[in-house]
Amino acid sequence: MKPTPKLSPLHTRLLAIVAGIPSGWVMSYGSVARAAGLPRHARHVAVALKAAPTEREIPWWRVVNSEGRISPRGLDGSDDLQRILLEAEGIIFDASGRVDLARFGWGG
């Protein structure tokens, strides 16, 4: 069994923001960082999500990039799963695969 990584206080802070994104809304990595008071730490959001224990219910799928797109992870099917989960919550993607952040972006 894989050991659970210890989350840093920074990661815990970022994950708390992601945990608060309601169903039917998204935030960009940068928006999550800004909401946590860490405007220059957008890349740490992805690191925090990757380090989050799987037993915690963190809605990782509600975080998209600054263009409203799903960021490729290089894992088979994870990008498709994220889109399926978002669409199940009522999020609409345009023909180019973008979410309208003005419409679906959560401001916290």
Automatic annotation (TrEMBL):
<feature type="domain" description="Methylated-DNA-[protein]-cysteine S-methyltransferase DNA binding">
    <location>
        <begin position="11"/>
        <end position="91"/>
    </location>
</feature>
<protein>
    <submittedName>
        <fullName>MGMT family protein</fullName>
    </submittedName>
</protein>
<dbReference type="InterPro" id="IPR036217">
    <property type="entry name" value="MethylDNA_cys_MeTrfase_DNAb"/>
</dbReference>
<dbReference type="InterPro" id="IPR014048">
    <property type="entry name" value="MethylDNA_cys_MeTrfase_DNA-bd"/>
</dbReference>
<dbReference type="Pfam" id="PF01035">
    <property type="entry name" value="DNA_binding_1"/>
</dbReference>
<dbReference type="InterPro" id="IPR052520">
    <property type="entry name" value="ATL_DNA_repair"/>
</dbReference>
<dbReference type="InterPro" id="IPR036388">
    <property type="entry name" value="WH-like_DNA-bd_sf"/>
</dbReference>
<keyword id="KW-0227">DNA damage</keyword>
